[in-house]
């Protein structure tokens, strides 16, 4: 079985970074690709219990792919649900905090 922690960190890094660089005004094609990516996870993610759990979350809260701000927040909220389930600290989903972590780095 996969190392669920290593896989999780790598996957969140990929997803949050992809959301951080997603366009402010995505084209219909870009929106469709993002929806495809998010809907593929529950079908393909190598931790099957994580995949099942995430699929339920995506059903309960359909992804907002309208632009990078909304998408980044949506993803942050889903990640926080997993954090809470695992007893981890939650993350502040304000755009500035998300950009600092996943796009711009800390201000100097
Ligand atoms: P991670 O949770 O991997 O976070 C990595 C970094 O992201 C953190 O260091 C922090 O800087 C940043 N971060 C934290 N929270 C947020 C947020 N809300 N928004 C933006 N950035 C944030 N593990 C299980 O045991 N059971 C599961 O059911 C499960 N489901 C998962 C479902 C998915 C879709 C994914 C991608 C992972 C899942 N995992 C699950 C793995 C789990 O979420 C963690 O990745 C793993 O436990 C390693 O945790 P970590 O403490 O290193 O930080």
From TrEMBL:
For this protein, the Enzyme Commission number is 1.8.3.2
Q: Where does the record place the ERV/ALR sulfhydryl oxidase domain?
A: 1-102
Which keywords belong to this entry? Answer: Disulfide bond, FAD, Flavoprotein, Mitochondrion, Oxidoreductase
Where does it reside? Answer: Mitochondrion intermembrane space
| Cofactors named for this entry | FAD
Q: Which reaction does it catalyse?
A: 2 R'C(R)SH + O2 = R'C(R)S-S(R)CR' + H2O2
GO cellular component terms given for this protein: mitochondrial intermembrane space
> What's the top EC group for this one?
oxidoreductase
Primary location = mitochondrion
Q: One GO MF term, please? A: flavin adenine dinucleotide binding
Protein name from the UniProt record: Sulfhydryl oxidase
Annotated source species: Phanerochaete sordida
Span of the entire protein shown here: 95 to 202 of 206
């Amino acid at each position: 079985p996969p190392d669920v922690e290593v896989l999780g960190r790598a996957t969140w890094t990929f997803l949050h970074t992809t959301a951080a660089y997603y366009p402010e005004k995505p084209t219909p094609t870009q929106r469709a690709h993002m929806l495809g990516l998010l809907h593929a996870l529950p079908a393909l993610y190598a931790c099957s219990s994580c995949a099942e759990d995430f699929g339920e979350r995506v059903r309960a809260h359909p992804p907002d792919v309208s632009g990078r701000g909304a998408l980044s927040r949506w993803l942050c909220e889903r990640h926080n649900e997993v954090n809470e389930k695992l007893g981890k600290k939650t993350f502040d989903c304000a755009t500035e905090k998300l950009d600092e972590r996943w796009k711009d780095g800390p201000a100097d």
